[in-house]
Specification:
Blueprint lengths: L4 E4 L4 E4 L2 H11 L3 H14 L5 E3 H12 L4 H8 L8 E3 L5 E3 L2 H10 L4 H17 L4 E3 H15 L2 H16 L3 E6 L6 H11 L5 E3 H11 L30 H29 L3 E4 L11 H5 L4 E8 L3 H14 L5 H6 L1 H18 L3 E3 L3 H17 L6 H4 L1
Parallel strand pairs: 1-3, 4-6, 7-9, 7-10, 8-9, 10-11
Antiparallel strand pairs: 1-2, 4-5
Helix pairs in contact: 1-2, 1-4, 5-6, 6-7, 7-8, 8-16, 10-11, 11-15
Length: 393
């Protein structure tokens, strides 16, 4: 049987009625668990035949059940006064409620720190409520945001927001390529980049390699069927004492990376044809590969390359051990056994990145790394967009 649907008119969201959630809310208000569960069950019976109701309807049914507990429990259940609803009107005619949470995320997308974004979003809301605004156009909201950023955080932050809005309006594809050695945090950082920039298409070079392995038997392409730090073993130079020289290690890695780069380029070319943004991450995103990508993409697309690094051997070992705990199939022992090769490969990749001017970001603190990466992205966008608030908003 389908659960009744609860509509939160303030946030414009819909979700199924969950007895457990209501039980916890009642417990937090001071109702003992068993009694809270009984009340939630009673409410569930009352609304069983109702297909859809609002959060206000739920509250109106709960309050009479709480009268025996006194006004303090009722007030704790109700919480702070319901925030004023402010509708944002877009040029195509549709409207959505203003959400401080959503606006904070939008501000983080232009490179602002999370705390700064939350503060500005809250001040914008207070400004709207203080002036008794109940409806505002999206254009006016952007102007208001720009003014608050200028006042609260300064011209640089306001400029970042302006650049981000101009980029979104231009609808030019953004291709972000994140490289780094095993354990450098590529997947985690790339997922956060995609989330903040609202990029729905992401691709791992490891997954592309797996697909290629299915298509290419090991006997035809042996270097593809092993780890990057052991690919040298599949080359003729790999026959010997079982230990790679520095050049052999690099040659094996490049042999594998060059093959995977064919699939990487295909994924990028498709994104460009479809005019969608993409985050491509992986150890195979070597800065020296696909050297003509920017030229082939043309002026319409924006290409940003980033190389992550863990600069302390002890920290990288700690992360490799952690990978084994979180995902047993990744086998931390194997990484640690070949740690010297992994470390040497990182040194090679960082040298290559430095040689061709790819920004290197030490990944030691998550928030600091994200802030640096977003700064690089915004810096690239700033070099492409130079509109004024009147033109952009």
């Amino acid at each position: 049987m389908a659960r009744p649907v609860v509509v939160d008119e303030t946030e414009g969201t819909r979700f199924p009625f969950l007895r457990g959630i209501l039980t916890r809310s009642l417990q937090e208000a001071g109702v003992p668990f068993e009694e809270a569960y009984d009340i939630a069950s009673e409410i569930r019976v009352q609304i069983d035949e109702i297909g859809e109701l609002t959060t206000e309807d739920i509250r109106n049914r709960v309050i009479p059940q709480l009268e025996v507990y006194g006004s303090e429990v009722i007030q704790r259940y109700l919480g702070p006064p319901t925030p004023a609803s402010i509708q944002v009107r877009y040029s195509d005619g549709h409207e959505t409620p203003f959400s401080r949470g959503n606006h904070r995320v939008n501000l983080e997308a232009c490179g602002l720190a999370a705390d700064d974004a939350a503060t500005v979003a809250a001040r914008i809301y207070d400004d709207l409520v203080g002036h008794d605004v109940r409806e505002i156009s999206a254009s006016d909201l952007r102007h208001l945001t720009y003014r608050h950023l200028t006042t609260d955080l300064g011209g640089d932050a306001a400029r970042q927001y302006l650049v981000w809005q101009e980029f979104r309006r231009a609808k030019r594809p953004l291709i972000v390529i994140v490289g780094g050695a095993v354990g450098s945090g590529k997947s985690t950082i790339s997922a956060q980049i995609a989330h903040r920039l609202e990029i729905v298409r992401s691709q791992s070079t490891d997954m592309l390699r797996e697909v290629m392995r299915m298509m290419m038997p090991e006997r035809l392409m042996p270097a593809l069927h092993t780890s990057t730090f052991r690919a040298w073993e599949a080359l003729p130079i790999g026959e010997g004492n079982g230990k790679a020289s520095g050049q052999a290690l690099v040659d094996g890695f490049l042999t594998q990376a060059e093959k995977v780069s064919v699939a990487c380029e295909a994924v990028i070319q498709r994104a460009l044809r479809e005019r969608v943004s993409l985050v491509l991450e992986g150890v195979h995103a070597h800065p020296g590969l696909m050297p003509n990508l920017e030229a082939e993409a043309g002026e319409d697309a924006i290409i940003v390359r980033i190389m992550l690094a863990v600069m302390k051997a002890r920290e990288l070992k700690r992360r490799l051990k952690g990978r084994g705990k979180r995902a047993p199939d990744r086998r931390a022992k194997r990484y640690l056994k070949h740690f010297d090769a992994i470390w040497d490969l990182q040194s090679f990749m960082l040298s290559e990145a430095d040689l061709v001017g790819v920004p290197i970001v030490p990944n030691e603190d998550f928030e600091k790394t994200i802030h640096q990466v977003m700064g690089i992205l915004m810096g690239k966008l700033a070099s492409e967009f130079r509109g004024t608030p009147e033109e952009v908003f």
